[in-house]
């Protein structure tokens, strides 16, 4: 990783030296990611309406929900995005990622509109992409999948490429503007703002959809409009970035992904502990968000709006707690312990949703579980990502993060489909989207937590034996800043 260099500027201080300018740049970058996070989950609170108005059962919804990382996983777009960023720089890649998100989001919107239902495209998709449920079919498409779900999945795939590209680009942009200044605070603020997008979605989407006449596509239209505003934010940032370049501020480059490093990394037992812990934990969180609103509707007999208000505190709590946990980890350490504690909290919450909430239908119990799950969601990422540089050789850090993130995306791709299929299989004959029993799906999520817990104990034991320093503070001279830069790109997810 090279060091940012500021050449002599005869006209005075560079733009990044001015506080108002760098925080304006952060506001533009963070706003674009905030709008992207809104779009990611815009349909999550509308599962009931999707089934009633568009015929998406949980299997169709699960295949759509898992389609976002498809191209990143199977076409390795994660790697291509990094190459584009390295070759073309922040300014170009930011605008490109914003345009790709708008294109994918627009296709997604068209798929769920009433106008699409009788179109020639709908007829074509009904007759095509009916792939068998065979081992080789790794796509989201299957025989009998509604045409609207097929097109929405295609749009979501394209959007996912842009969102992934935007995530790593924003991290690079923050480094460029905040190197040697408030970089840790800037990264924490950006990630917190992005996560608040989920809170906005769970409350706002049902309200917008319920405006008479009730229409499932209306919230998606608003979300696409926000993506367009996000693209404008990226374009505006581009003008500021160009001005900064003209003042001699060079962009910091990350260590590139190297194919030859893959073999070295895959032979490390510690890598597999971290990668598997990551994929198991995140598979029990992000796919859960896709089903959380409908689960609360079924367990508490709530409307989507009321369920959204209950779940609203989950992303807000996680966003609020994360900076404090990061500070604690930097100053006092205990990373492995935090991973274990986070996994325990997640297991307890999912088991509560599986057994206690359906039995008691208690809003207080539900709110408590949601709050605790938010704390878990803050604990694990705060401890996991900054720990990787302690475990992997410095020369392999960039490639290790890329591989871990790729493996994580496999789980994010597969688990929404798995949960959708499990939900249908465990509710034979149920067609009312308000009558699903979520006990078995929540037990599947809890089992991921149990496996992550065991890996956490194994990681702590290996740390005690090898002395990696997982329990030690992160803030060690200049290394802390280097860890934060690498971790931030992976934490965008």
From TrEMBL:
Entries under Pfam families matching the protein: MFS_1
Major place of residence: membrane
Catalytic activity: L-lysyl-L-lysine(out) = L-lysyl-L-lysine(in); L-alpha-aminoacyl-L-histidine(out) = L-alpha-aminoacyl-L-histidine(in); L-aspartyl-L-lysine(out) = L-aspartyl-L-lysine(in); L-arginyl-glycine(out) = L-arginyl-glycine(in)
Gene3D superfamilies assigned: MFS general substrate transporter like domains (1.20.1250.20)
PROSITE patterns reported in the protein's UniProt record: MFS
TM regions (residue ranges): 20-40, 60-85, 92-111, 151-171, 192-214, 220-240, 268-288, 308-329, 336-357, 363-388, 400-426, 438-459
Compartments, record wording: Lysosome membrane
Keywords: Lysosome, Membrane, Transmembrane, Transmembrane helix, Transport
Membrane topology annotation: Multi-pass membrane protein
InterPro entries: MFS, MFS_dom, MFS_trans_sf, MFSD1
Stretches assigned to the Major facilitator superfamily (MFS) profile domain: 267-493
Subunit structure: Homodimer. Interacts with lysosomal protein GLMP (via lumenal domain); the interaction starts while both proteins are still in the endoplasmic reticulum and is required for stabilization of MFSD1 in lysosomes but has no direct effect on its targeting to lysosomes or transporter activity.
Sequence similarity: Belongs to the major facilitator superfamily.
Known function: Lysosomal dipeptide uniporter that selectively exports lysine, arginine or histidine-containing dipeptides with a net positive charge from the lysosome lumen into the cytosol. Could play a role in a specific type of protein O-glycosylation indirectly regulating macrophages migration and tissue invasion. Also essential for liver homeostasis.
Name of the protein this chain belongs to: Lysosomal dipeptide transporter MFSD1
Source organism (scientific name): Heminiphilus faecis
């Amino acid at each position: 990783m090279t060091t940012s260099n500021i050449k002599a500027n005869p006209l005075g201080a560079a733009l990044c030296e001015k506080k108002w300018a760098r925080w304006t740049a952060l506001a533009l970058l963070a706003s674009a990611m905030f709008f992207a996070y809104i779009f990611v989950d815009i349909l999550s609170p509308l599962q009931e309406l999707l089934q009633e108005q568009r015929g998406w059962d949980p299997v169709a919804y699960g295949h759509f929900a898992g389609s976002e990382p498809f191209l990143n996983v199977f076409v390795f777009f994660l790697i291509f995005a990094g190459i584009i960023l390295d070759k073309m720089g922040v300014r170009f890649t930011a605008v490109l990622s914003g345009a790709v998100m708008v294109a994918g989001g627009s296709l997604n919107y068209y798929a769920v509109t009433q106008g699409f239902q009788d179109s020639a495209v709908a007829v074509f998709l009904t007759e095509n992409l009916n792939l068998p449920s065979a081992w080789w079919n790794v796509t989201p498409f299957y025989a009998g999948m509604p045409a609207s779900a097929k097109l929405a999945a295609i749009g979501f795939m394209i959007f996912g490429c842009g969102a992934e590209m935007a995530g790593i680009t924003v991290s690079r942009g923050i480094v460029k503007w905040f190197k040697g200044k408030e970089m840790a605070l800037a990264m924490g603020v950006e990630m917190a703002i992005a996560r608040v997008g989920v809170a906005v979605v769970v409350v706002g989407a049902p309200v917008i959809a319920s405006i008479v006449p009730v229409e499932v596509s209306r919230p998606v239209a608003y979300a696409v409009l926000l993506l367009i505003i996000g693209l404008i934010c990226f374009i505006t940032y581009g003008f500021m970035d160009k001005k900064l370049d003209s003042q001699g501020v060079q962009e910091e480059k990350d260590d590139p992904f190297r194919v030859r490093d893959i073999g070295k990394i895959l032979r490390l037992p510690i890598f597999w502990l971290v990668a598997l812990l990551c994929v198991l934990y995140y598979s029990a969180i992000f796919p859960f968000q896709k089903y959380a609103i409908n689960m609360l509707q079924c367990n508490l007999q709530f409307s989507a709006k009321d369920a959204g208000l209950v779940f609203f505190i989950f992303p807000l709590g996680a966003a609020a707690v994360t900076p404090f946990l990061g500070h604690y980890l930097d100053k006092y350490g205990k990373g492995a312990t935090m991973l274990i504690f986070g996994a325990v909290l997640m297991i307890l919450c999912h088991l509560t949703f599986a057994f206690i909430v359906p039995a008691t239908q208690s809003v207080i119990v539900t709110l408590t579980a949601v709050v605790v799950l938010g704390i878990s969601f803050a604990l694990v990422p705060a401890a996991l990502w900054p720990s990787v540089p302690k475990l992997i050789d410095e020369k392999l850090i960039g490639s290790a993060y890329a591989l871990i993130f790729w493996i994580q995306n496999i789980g994010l791709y597969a688990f929404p489909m798995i949960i959708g299929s499990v939900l249908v299989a465990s509710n034979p004959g149920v067609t009312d989207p308000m009558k699903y029993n979520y006990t078995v799906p929540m037990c599947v999520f809890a089992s991921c937590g149990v496996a992550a817990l065991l890996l956490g104990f194994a990681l702590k034991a290996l740390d005690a034996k090898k002395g990696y320093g997982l329990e030690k503070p992160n803030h060690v001279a200049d290394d802390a800043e280097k860890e934060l830069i690498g971790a931030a790109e992976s934490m965008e997810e």
